[in-house]
Amino acid sequence: MCIPKTIASPESTEPVTIEYLCSDEMAVSCYLTESSFKSMELQSLDEHTDGSIVLIDMIRMYNDNPTAIGEIIQRGIPIIMLNLLPDMVQTIHDCVGFITYNENSELTGMWLHDNLLGSYNVYDYDSKALALSGICELMMEETGLEAPEGASLAYFDKFTKICGDFGKFNVRTYYYQITDTSDQNDFYLTHYTIQGICNDGYSKSLLGVRSNLESTTTWPQELVDYGPTTAPGTTTVGFDAGVTAGYSSGPTVTPGFNVSWSHSYSDVDVIDDCDFDYNLFEIKYDINECTNSGYHTLKVEPGSVEATPDGFGYYADETYMAQFCHVVIHGFWHNNFTDFTQHQTVMI
Asked: What are the residues whose beta carbons fall under 8 Å from the beta carbon of 212, sequence distance 6 or more?
């Protein structure tokens, strides 16, 4: 699935038009100043032009019509939301069925196509114009992944976390629902992709993700399987239907369902802090900051399988993490090790 080609690509000579609705020009001018976007005010969505992105002040829209945002998303109009507040999240979820939320997000973008919702968040940009540019670039990218046989892509989420002067990490997370024959459980496969990038003069020493399945819901959710586990070197992440054999209602997933991917690196150790008893998924990649794996772009791809009660959906508290440091002597001495995290709540 990809973002529609009616939205101008980054290479396009035509700038993207940002239409703002339920927002006065003063409120959005800081996002549009010094940007390459065209902008125009809409009096109603009937004035929306295909290929444009709609910027919405959620406080004003929510006060006027709290369910309108879900109706807009259902129409397939790509939107960017300002001032998305916690009490609005459940309303959106009830309208469209999925959402990823973090109260520290500068902007939240969404676009629905063929019943698949993409969510895009940007964090910690010093410039509001750059924040808008960042989220528009995310909305113009292709996801580049297809669902494995025996599963369907239910939801995907993207964001970029700016880590001060040190660098940034990019996250692309794909949530698949596994086809099952169980009348008791639904099964989900989560594929995390975390990319750490350093600025000149800096290195990185850790990337990772934690997902707590118990903290968000009152109904039981289970961590069924995950990968990788503690090991250095080449890592293969794989799942098989056999891991769900303990469930009582017969074959619970598509017979022969399996999916695997691998990622290779040197000077990186996997730290497995997962706990089946607490349904906690936590994988960290310990990177030797004095090597190329620390200095240059590194992409890691952990994954997990979750079981939830049939029809209840999938909820999780996720925390993405990275640690960067300052290079004093290249390949030998580093200091000022600094941790960065980004928390998100996933509702599918």
From this structure: 279, 280, 281, 316, 317, 318
Nearest to 284 by CA among 260, 319, 315, 259: 319
DSSP string over 138-188? HHTSB----PPTTEEEEEEEEEEEEETTTEEEEEEEEEEEEP---SSEEEE
Q: What Rg, from alpha-carbon coordinates, does the chain have?
A: 21
Q: Is the pLDDT of residue 147 over 90?
A: no
Q: Got the DSSP string for 269-304? A: EEEE--BTTTTEEEEEEEE-TTSHHHHS-EEE--EE
Q: What is the pTM of this model?
A: 0.70
pLDDT in tens, 6-43: 333 334 445 567 777 666 666 666 666 655 566 677 77
The pairs formed by 29-36 with CB atoms below 8 angstroms and a separation of 24 or more are 30/128, 30/129, 31/55, 31/82, 31/107, 31/128, 31/129, 31/131, 31/132, 32/129, 32/132, 33/128, 33/129, 34/127, 34/129, 35/129, 35/132, 35/133, 36/133
Cβ proximity of 96 and 114 under 8 Å: no
Q: What is the pLDDT of residues 86-132, one digit of tens each?
A: 777 777 777 666 666 666 666 777 766 555 556 666 666 666 666 67
Going by the DSSP 8-state scheme, the letter that residue 50 receives in this structure is T
Please give the pLDDT value at position 281.
Answer: 95
Q: Residue 38: in which H helix or E strand, if any?
A: strand 38-41
SS3 250: coil
Q: Which residue has the higher pLDDT, 237 or 293?
A: 293
